[in-house]
Every structure is written in structure tokens, then in C-alpha cells.
Amino acid sequence: MAAWLNRHLPDSTRVLVSPTLRTRQTALALDRKIRLCEALAPGAGVESLLATARWPDAREPVLVVGHQDTLGLTAAYLLSGKVQAWTVRKGAVWWIRRRERPEGTEVLLHAAVSAEQV
Question: Taking the model in full, what pTM does it have?
């Protein structure tokens, strides 16, 4: 997955990582500068993740290396407008984008890739 991400993510991507050992190990495989964020620790909420990522106002892409349930809850909220228990599989990437259209703001799932697909 790290190789896939490195091929597709811009160099300007901020990598935000939960402080747990497993998430740090995952992020280090990217060979990029990472920022450990207590606000992404297990049990963090949707609001905490979005504030840490500065969604929707961040000017640069953000990669969050975190934990299920928070990742699933956040994906559901961004894509459906409701906090629901969606599953983001271990080792998977959900690339969610926001873009401005003449008719308004649009949030879309740009890619969903599992470790088995790369």
C-alpha cells in the first residue's frame, strides 16, 4: 500500500498518524515526514479527526493513518452526511475529495483500494 500511495499522492501531502505502534509502523513504510497526533488515538471521534486534518479547509492533501471505528465513522459522515458504522478494512485506503462546483460543494470517493488490490 505504501508504494501505491507514494505513486499517487502529491509530495505536499501531510501525513497525520495515530501515536500507536502499529500506525507508526504503517506510516514509516511511506518514507515521508509524518506527524504523530494524539487526537487520532484509538477512540478518537469524527470531530477530532476532521479538526486535526483541517477538513474542509486544508490547502494541501492529508493522509490520516488511524483506526477503525473512527475512520469508518468519518468516511460515512463525509460521504453520506450521517455518522454511521462503516467499515474501512485494515490496510485499505479511502481517498475522499472535496471540490467546488457551480452548483455547490461536492464530496466524493475518489478511490477505495484494499491491500489485496495493489
Answer: 0.92
